[in-house]
Amino acid sequence: MPTEEERNETKERVMAQLEEVIDPELGVDIVNLGLVYGIELDDEFNVTVEMTLTTMGCPLAGTIQADVKRALSELQELGEIGKVDVNIVWSPPWSKDRMSRYAKIALGLPD
Asked: Domain containing 87: what range?
């Protein structure tokens, strides 16, 4: 069974990889947009990414989910994580308040 430290280190690596996933419409990564709500790891290091999208019915939902899996495939190839699931949720609803300062600046929004 993995230690809490191993879980936290793996979650940090997963989040770092997710910063490579760019929202195609906004041009900013999903982490800084605040779309990633959580990372769950089971005892075999299978990963569930809980995230949302900026709008319900987003036509790029499938693309973003595929991009998340592709971004995490490197960690899978290294044997650091197992299976990856992406769980899209709508509660709590996403708002601009979830965005990082970096994302707001990149999109020209007030901080």
From this structure: 4-95
